[in-house]
Amino acid sequence: MNTLTGEYYWQNTVTNQSTYSFPELPVGKYRVLAYVIAQPSRTFYAGYSEFVTCGLLASCPSHALITVEVKAGQDTPNVDPIDWYATDPEGIGWPLDPTINWN
């Protein structure tokens, strides 16, 4: 999700897929999330957060999403939305799956 425009960019992946690429992603600042499309949930989805960069350890207190800057002509490696451990992601401000009408 582009933090300035609110626009979402996505791709479908499969379980245990370890790489992904967005070759046409515009330059900007983004938050990276992963949703289980087959089982939409308000409480179970993942993000690239401080918990990820802290090593996914119980001693890591923060699940705050990290803003990632995408620059022209540069890869942005190791941005892995693998924090599936936030107990209330919506409650801490993570955006819900934009492909679902939650009303």
Structure description:
This protein is mostly loops. The protein has one domain (1-9, 26-103). The protein is 4% helix and 10% strand. The protein has one helix and four strands, in the order E-E-E-H-E. The chain has one helix spanning 50-53; strands at residues 28-30, 33-34, 46-47, 68-70. Strands 1-4 form a two-stranded antiparallel ribbon. It is globular, with a radius of gyration of 14 Å. The mean pLDDT is 93.
Give a short summary of the structure.
Helices cover 4% and strands 10% of the residues.
Distance between the ends: 21 Å
The amount of helix comes to under 10%
Query: Sheet with the most strands?
Result: 2 strands, antiparallel
Strand percentage lies at 5-15%
Low-confidence stretches: none
* Tally of alpha and pi helices: 1
Number of strands: 4
Q: How do the strands of the widest beta sheet line up side by side?
A: 1-4
Mean pLDDT: 93
Secondary-structure element pattern, one letter each:
EEEHE
The outline comes out as: globular
Helix/sheet category: little secondary structure
Taken together, the total number of domains comes to 1
Rg from C-alpha positions? 14 Å
Features:
single chain; 103 residues; two-stranded antiparallel sheet; two-stranded antiparallel ribbon; 1 helix; 4 strands; 10% strand
Task: Produce the secondary structure layout.
Layout: E1 28-30, E2 33-34, E3 46-47, H1 50-53, E4 68-70
Antiparallel strand pairs: 1-4, 2-3
